[in-house]
Amino acid sequence: MDPAIITLCVLAVAAFLFVTELIPLAVTAMAACTMLGILGVLPAKQVYAGLSNSTVVLFGGMFVIGAAMFKTGLAEAIGIAVVKKAGTGEIRLMGAIMLVTIILSSVSSNTGTVACLMPVIVGICQAAKIPASKELMPLAIAANVGGTITMIGTPPNVIVTGALSAAGLPTFGFFEFAYIGIPLSAIIFFWTLFVGRHFLPDKSAGAMDEEAVKAAKEEAGAGDDNAPKSKTKMWISGLILIGVVLAMALELPTLPLQTAAVTGAILCVITGCLKEKEAYAGIDWVTIFLFAGMLSVATAMEKTGAGKLIADTVVNMMGDNPNPYVLTAVLFLISNVLTQFMSNTASAALLAPIGISIAQSIGCDPKPVLMALGIAASMAFATPMATPPNTLVLGPGGFSFNDYVKVGVPMCLISWIACVIIIPIFWPFH
Q1: How far is CA 266 from the centre of its chain?
Q2: Is residue 245 scored above 90 in pLDDT?
Q3: Is 125 in contact with 205 (CB distance < 8 Å)?
Q4: Mapping DSSP to helix (H, G, I), strand (E, B) and coil, where does residue 424 land?
Q5: What does the pLDDT look like over 73-131, one tens digit per residue?
Q6: Residue 337 CA to its chain's centroid (Å)
Q7: SS3 state at 169
Q8: Four-CA torsion 394, 382, 328, 297, nearest 10 degrees
Q9: Angle between helix 74-85 and 110-128 (nearest 10)
Q10: Which residues are within 8 A (CB) of 422 and not within 5 positions of it... i.e. 6 or more apart?
Q11: Which of 120, 189, 266, 418 is most buried, judged by most C-beta within 10 A?
Q12: Which residue numbers delimit the Citrate transporter-like domain (predicted)?
């Protein structure tokens, strides 16, 4: 059988498993690249080559630094201080919650941020007699959009960067996502504050899934809430993060992004902000293995021509000389719809190599297309299962499925329009 057809068959099975999650996402990705090796599509050296990709190393290092922020209590302390200073006015409290969540989510786990702040917010709402639903949905929204500001803010950003790297194309810089992430965060922030809040249901705090919150905190690296926190370690973890971010911003030739991240992670362990086992536990291994596995699948799609087959089919459906703006808008919608019902990491991993092939087939720079796909995968507002932050606030906010639809669909449309306008300004198609 033609290697391209074999690759497409493996991709189709992987897509089905990503959507249904019959088996874990990371297992699906690693099984896909393993199968391509067994079937002879990929040589043995390339089957697991994704695990040695520099972006995997970068992400691993930043996971550890983020875990140190939660373990030392720094992230929680910052969030609580800002939220408490905002007072008990509904709009002021909402603005403070969203602002601090956007900032924290841009450099650390959005799930961990929500898990740490949610109990405090529920408590403030109960004391001030403000419906918890009015503050918890904005918390989840801010966590989702805040991750779009940096490369490590959300997994889809890393996925599209890795896909470009695997294809031998120029990649995105660490802060390059801010060109779209900051304007988009500002748009969503003000929309929620002045318009979107009217779509929020008026419900008192429901039952909080304590186990889910605890698991989310542990996954992000946060420890026991009752354990004493060292202010010295809080400062150290904060300074390490600032140092790593500055090093990345300076783009020093001897200190590439992944080296800066690993240096920061090592310092977190040496200074006692994290123990060795806590550092390992702070790494989101699902994202690491899913990313690495799908990089190898992307390589197979490029080398066998499977990606070109998909690209040609899509382009032919759109007629002769399809407009890159229209094509990008369509791909954004596809990615955005998928991410409401499946992992945003999986949807980005699935579509990134296809997006590159489509862009190249019409003579368009793949970067704006990949940026649109990655951002679209993070705009997961319209269903409770779209992202962990959405799921975490479901019970405490007393939300129904329709509540997410009413609030989320307008935001998805606003994000779509904003991205179609803003992305080509910073990343021209030609």
Answers
A1: 24
A2: no
A3: yes
A4: helix
A5: 887 788 878 877 877 778 888 998 999 999 988 887 788 788 878 888 887 887 778 88
A6: 16
A7: coil
A8: 40
A9: 30
A10: 179, 180, 183, 184
A11: 189
A12: 16-363
CA distance 326 to 322: 7
Give the amino acid at 193. L
Please provide the DSSP assignment of 246-293 as one string. Answer: HHHHHT-TTS-HHHHHHHHHHHHHHTTSS-HHHHHHHS-HHHHHHHHH
For residue 92, give both structure tokens.
């002021």
Residue 39: which of 15, 6, 80, 70 has the closest Cα? Answer: 6
User: How far apart, in whole angstroms, are the C-alpha atoms of residue 222 and residue 76?
Assistant: 9
Residues 71, 223: contact at Cβ < 8 Å?
yes
The DSSP H or E segment spanning 105 is helix 90-107
Mean pLDDT of the chain: 85
What letter represents residue 109's amino acid?
S
Both tokens of 260, joined, read: 């800066």
| Burial grade of 234 (CB within 10 A; 0-12, 13-18, 19 or more) | buried
Q: How far apart are CA 253 and CA 235, in angstroms?
A: 28
Cβ-based neighbour number of residue 9 at 10 Å: 14
- In angstroms, the Cα distances linking 181 to 176, 191, 298 are 9, 15, 26
Is 226 a residue whose pLDDT tops 70? Answer: no
**The pair of three-digit structure tokens given for residue 420, joined into one six-digit string:** 């179609």
Q: What is the per-residue DSSP string for 3-59?
A: HHHHHHHHHHHHHHHHHH-SS-HHHHHHHHHHHHHHTTSS-HHHHTGGGG-HHHHHH
Q: Virtual CA dihedral for 361, 420, 158, 260, nearest 10 degrees?
A: 120
Provide the token pair at 418.
Answer: 């904003």
* pTM (2 d.p.): 0.83
Specify whether the CB–CB gap between 300 and 8 falls below 8 A: no
Say whether 192 sits in a helix, a strand or coil.
helix
Q: How far apart are CA 251 and CA 267, in angstroms?
A: 20
Whether residue 45 has pLDDT greater than 70: yes
pLDDT tens, 136-157? 999 999 999 998 998 878 888 9
What is the distance between the alpha carbons of residues 88 and 81, in angstroms, rounded to a whole number? 13
| Distance in Å from the first CA to the final CA of the chain | 37
Degrees to nearest 5, angle at CA 301 with 299 and 303: 65
Check residue 155 and give its pLDDT: 84
Q: What is the pLDDT of residues 167-208, one digit of tens each?
A: 888 989 888 999 999 999 999 999 999 998 888 888 765 666
